[in-house]
Design brief:
Elements (H helix, E strand, L loop, with lengths): L16 H15 L18 E2 L5 E5 L4 H6 L6 H12 L7 E5 L13 H18 L3 E5 L1 H8 L5 H4 L4 E5 L2 E8 L2 H4 L3 H11 L2 H5 L33 H7 L4
Parallel strand pairs: 2-3, 2-4, 4-6
Antiparallel strand pairs: 1-3, 5-6
Bound molecules: uracil.
Length: 248
Amino acid sequence: MRVRPHSPLPSASVRSAAERRELLKAVYDEARECVRCPLHQTRTTVVFGNGNANADLMFVGEAPGANEDRMGLPFVGQAGKLLDRLLEEIGMARKDVFVANTLKCRPPDNRDPHPNEIEACRDYLDRQIELIEPVMICTLGNFATKLLRGDTTGISRLHGREELRVIGPRAVRLYPLYHPAAALYTPATLEALRSDFHRIPELLALGAPDQPEQAEAVPELEEQDALPELKEPVAVAAEAATAQLGLF
Ligand code: URA
């Protein structure tokens, strides 16, 4: 699903869906070799994110858990099942959205991300956002919300309050939501998450916000680079690698 914007987009949006995918694959190839923070020593797999590289709607969670670390895919455990259910309730599915995390590697024992890890990983998320060019980003929980808003206001004050934010070169509608994991065992949080979630279609229908003026260089795809071979990530099934690149 791609909602056509109301306003002209900057030059980056001349990228075709295929170019977007290939550029994203290049970032993935880089991320899966990443040693920028100590989490590379304990991870099984880099969980880059998955879904539709051409999506209008992007979700940003916290960090992979044990299931995600094993499978190489984001939100595959109980929290992911809840995310799937909420998407279904609004007539959407994973194939319509792109799902990523603040951290691409699992913190040991699912502890909170450390500031140095968030800082080291930020560039991957920025590049994902820049390439996917979402119209709207739902941050799931405190870590993604604080990172993308650049302040420390917590999710309980911000959930369900959409705002326009410029992230990198793009203006997006930022929509903080409770993290699905927080809603699993707390009925009031689930109720709030569900009610906020059900407003997503109406917010998406507003289309893309006006974009900041800028001269942006669009990386050219060389003919020979246009369709790189997928390399297999460590010990992950081929279909997981394809799914990581998102391309339903
Ligand atoms: N929680 C997250 O924030 N991300 C995942 O991928 C899974 C659980």
